[in-house]
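Appendix C reproduces, verbatim, an entry submitted by the partner laboratory led by Prof. M.T., so that reviewers can inspect both the input and the predicted structure.
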Amino acid sequence: MSKRDPKRLPHDFHLWTAVASTIDPLRRKGLLKLGHTPLPMPPPQAAPASTLNAPPKRKPARAPFLPPYQAPLPSSPMPEKAVDPLIRKKLGRGRIEIDGTIDLHGMTQGEARAALHRYLHARWSRGDRTLLVITGKGARSNDDYMAAMSERGILRTMLPIWLSEPSLAPMVSGWSVAARGHGGEGAWYVRLRRS
């Protein structure tokens, strides 16, 4: 710790003197017993006449510094519509028959979306209720780990978004990942509403 030069004033000396001038010293009980007389109080300063009659000015209410807390929005861009767990369990065990299957392997996003739209419209008009949509799990590559993770399973990622579109949403009651016997993570059960 460095020694302070007693001749040098601290950098906030002007603040200290301003605060010290507003403070009244405490009276000590022992001073009167020892024969010391208390210092006389300074006479109250008369306020200017203009400030006596005027009411004190109110400061305008300040807006809060931060906006009120809001809960974060769900990370999912589309509403979650899962197939009823009891129906999904029956589908996985083979107790409910699958009315149709479409395989989107090897298609581009545009081709797969168009094929899905045509297929769902045709099956809904026929009165089918349960469909199996095979998207695949996506290709894996060991060359570029981050590219493989971000590009893996684009059809699998896009299927719930396509099913939430206004043209398909009125027909679809829900969707869930298929059971292992029907393709696991590479396939979806799609449940249609009654026409």
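DSSP finds seven helices and four strands in the chain. Additional entries are available on request from the coordinating office.
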